[in-house]
Design goal:
Elements lengths: L1 E5 L8 E5 L9 E11 L1 H8 L7 H8 L12 E9 L11 E5 L10 E5 L4 E3 L6 H5 L2 H14 L7 E5 L4 H12 L3 E6 L4 H6 L4 E4 L12 E6 L6 H5 L2 E9 L4 H13 L3 E3 L7 H12 L7 E6 L3 H9 L6 E5 L2
Parallel strand pairs: 8-9, 8-11, 9-10, 11-12, 12-13, 14-15
Antiparallel strand pairs: 1-2, 3-4, 3-6, 3-15, 4-5, 5-7
Helix pairs in contact: 1-10, 4-5, 4-9
The protein binds NADP nicotinamide-adenine-dinucleotide phosphate.
NADP nicotinamide-adenine-dinucleotide phosphate (NAP) binds next to helix 1 and helix 5.
């Protein structure tokens, strides 16, 4: 099969399109012909090992010291089931599915395998493969952190810092679905765009520093990761929650101390890519409450350009790779 291998950590020149062995499935797995996948922040971060402060060593420990142990990246995809293991009961050959593989990666290939019990579900016919493939990474992160970890409720004031990227566009939409009043922070070029996603108020970060305003928020959802925790806490309401999805090791340690000794809560960690979470976010898209946002589509041959656009940290929503 054709696949994109990352042969070494570093620049996009290390991404090579190769003929690779087709994955062999176990009895509880399905094999999917990938028709659309994405390049996400998780892909360029692992390629470059550019991680939030203090996380580089951990990343090497997990993904490989000298080069990536799993050379095929891609955290999500949509496509067609072409083989099923003998104990698989919920999928059959020909089913169209959408899957989130997260840190197991594997989506940047012609075929990918996934466990039946993993984050894989049938794709609703109302979504294109490109739309379906672009939803899990941002959507599950927003849903897990806002609904299940921060427990956002109707009437909460939520601010999304980094509102125009993959996680940001999902966070605005999920927070609105939960009934929150949403302030979105993004660059000038994206002000009208994030308004169109339902943000009640938009702050252009090149003009206003939201932490210097007098506003207080029940939940601060920080996607950018470049602000000091103490600055952010100043903008929290009584018992407010600070969600740091790009936290470095210092912020994680600070969180432990602050959670013990203050009435604010700091939430870090990784999103839980489960079948339930995938079902919920894809269900919201199927019902029309949630929109897939795609900035640009690239053919597989242009994977390096796709990586560079995502690495710019200024894409709008998601970047899709199609037509394997
Ligand atoms: N914890 C988890 O489980 C988890 C899951 C998913 C992602 N993440 C992390 O979340 C982070 C964001 O991911 P993403 O895919 O949403 O990123 P992205 O698509 O690249 O979006 C980046 C956002 O940051 C904004 N931004 C860029 N430079 C900025 C600046 N100087 N000041 C303020 N805002 C700025 C961009 O706004 P403009 O383009 O409008 O300027 C955009 O809204 C990454 O670090 C990723 O590793 C963590």
């Amino acid at each position: 099969m054709r696949a994109v291998y990352c042969i070494q950590y570093g620049g996009v020149e290390n991404l090579k399109i190769v003929e690779a062995p087709t994955p062999v499935i176990m009895k509880n797995q399905i094999l999917v012909q990938v028709r659309a996948t994405t390049v996400q922040t998780a892909d360029w971060r692992i390629r470059t090992l550019e991680m939030p402060k203090g996380m580089r060593f951990m990343a090497k420990l997990f993904f490989g010291f000298r080069k990536p142990k799993q050379p095929i990246f891609g955290t999500e995809f949509a496509g067609t089931v072409v083989a099923v293991g003998e104990s698989v009961t919920h999928f059959k050959i020909g089913d169209e599915v959408v899957a989130a593989t997260g840190a197991k990666y594997g989506g940047h290939a012609e075929f990918a395998k996934v466990s039946e019990k993993g984050a894989v579900i049938k794709k609703p016919s109302s979504l294109t493969v490109q739309e379906a493939a672009s939803i899990p990474f941002g959507g599950i992160t927003a849903l897990d952190f806002l609904k299940y970890k921060a427990k956002v409720k109707s009437g909460d004031r939520v601010i999304v810092n980094g509102a125009s990227g993959s996680v940001g566009v999902a966070a605005i939409q999920v927070a609105k679905i939960l009934g929150a009043h949403v302030t979105a922070v993004c660059g000038s070029q994206n002000v009208e765009f994030v308004k169109s996603l339902g943000a009640d108020r938009v702050i252009d970060y090149s003009k206003t520093k939201f932490w210097e305003e007098n506003e207080k928020y029940n939940v601060i959802f920080d996607i950018v990761g470049d602000l000091k925790t103490t600055l952010l806490i100043n903008s929290l309401a009584e018992k407010g929650k600070l969600v740091l999805i790009a936290a470095g090791i210092n912020q994680m340690l600070e969180a432990v101390a602050k959670n013990l000794f203050s009435n604010h809560r700091i939430i870090c960690g990784v999103a839980n890519e489960s079948k339930e979470m995938l079902t919920e976010i894809i269900g919201l898209a199927e019902s029309g409450k949630y929109r897939a946002i795609i900035d640009k589509e690239f053919p597989l041959e242009e994977i390096a350009q796709a990586h560079l656009l995502v690495q710019s940290r200024h894409k709008r929503g998601n970047v899709v790779i199609r037509n394997f």
